[in-house]
Amino acid sequence: MEPPPGSAWTTLSAMIHCFGNGLELDDAVFELRQDDRVIPLEPKVFDVLRQLVMCSDQVLSKDELFQRVWPDEYVTESVLHRCIHLARKAIGDEQQKNLLTTVRGRGYRFVGAVSTRDSATPSEPERSSDPTTPAEVFLGREAVMAELRAAFHEAANGAGRVVLLVGDPGIGKTRVSEESVRELRAAGVSVLVGQCREEEGSPAFWPWIQVLRGLGGDDPRASELLERMEGAGVQGETDESALRQRFRLF
After folding, report:
1. What is the pLDDT of residue 5?
2. How do residues 175-223 score in pLDDT, each as one tens digit?
3. How many CB atoms lie within 10 A of CB 48?
4. Are β-strands 107-110 and 59-60 bridged in parallel, bridged antiparallel, or unpaired?
5. Contact 193, 181 (CB under 8 A)
6. CA 209 to CA 194: how far, in whole Å?
7. How far is residue 10 from each of residues 13, 37, 184, 204, measured CA to CA in Å?
8. Is residue 192 classed exposed, middle or buried when 0-12, 13-18 and 19+ CB atoms within 10 A define those classes?
9. Among 33, 122, 145, 193, which is least packed, fewest CB within 10 Å?
10. CA 214 to CA 155: how far, in whole Å?
11. Strands 37-39 and 31-34
């Protein structure tokens, strides 16, 4: 897939997303503002709103929002419903729901017009020297981001690529991945995400199930594969029918 001309995939800058009646969502400082007034938001409410605004005019399912905002936590749907309610209240859409709509049986969709611009935050802001803060963790990753961009452009030109991010815990692998996904989506590129879970009880092929669900059922081949994956392991491992199903799946 070719990135759109002048896409955001050419920059590391955080973005300000403008919408509604003078509202601004600032990636750099994690603020929602209106006419230079900061509107207080809980971190997870901000994250949910940010995901929906960044994917403006797309339907995000509840599963997608859970994966993006609570990737390593188990939360109930009531938590998501509360975040949606508070996000609507913060942007003045609590009653009309003209900006943030519910698509019954599908998820949520931000339908308001959104424009973006580079954040005015300096490239090297004065912040705490504590290396555990997100902004400091991501400093100095230009070389890694450049390699990821190069791999994407090669893949877009027909040469498939696999990139493996490795490093000690806490070094910033997750942040680099999130920045890559953010920039690609801002550039109009479809990005599918699957995550492994360490705890017991995760379904077989769970990362790939998440990826296939992200396609939204538009590809019949993907739908067939998803059905096979979701049915894997339901029958006993020695059951002849289950063995045939596993063979076809592989």
Report:
1. 44
2. 888 888 888 888 888 888 888 776 677 777 888 888 888 777 667 888 8
3. 26
4. antiparallel
5. yes
6. 7
7. 9, 31, 10, 37
8. middle
9. 122
10. 20
11. antiparallel
Taking 3-state DSSP, the helix, strand and coil percentages for the chain, each rounded to the nearest 5, stand at 40, 10, 45
In one-letter notation, the amino acid at residue 175 is R
Residue 140: the pLDDT is 63
State the pLDDT at residue 84: 94
Residue whose structure tokens are 């990005």: 191
Confirm if 211 and 193 have CB atoms less than 8 A apart. Answer: yes
Q: Which pair of tokens denotes residue 125?
A: 């802001």
Instruction: Report the Cα 181 to chain-centroid distance in Å.
Output: 7
Judged on CB neighbours under 10 Å (0-12, 13-18, 19+), 41 is: buried
How far, in Å, CA of 156 to CA of 173, rounded? 23
182 contact partners, CB below 8 Å, separation of at least 6: 27, 54
From CA 156, how far away is CA 193, in angstroms rounded? 18
> Is 245:229 a contact under the CB 8 Å cutoff?
no
Q: Say which DSSP state 170 is in.
A: T
- Tokens 């308001």 locate to 112
Hunting for tokens 């936590």 — which residue is that?
Answer: 73
Residues 11-41 have pLDDT tens digits of 334 678 899 888 999 887 888 999 888 999 8
**How confident is the model over 110-136, as a mean pLDDT?**
55
Token digits of residue 131: 């290396």
Distance from C-alpha of 19 to C-alpha of 98, rounded to nearest angstrom: 12
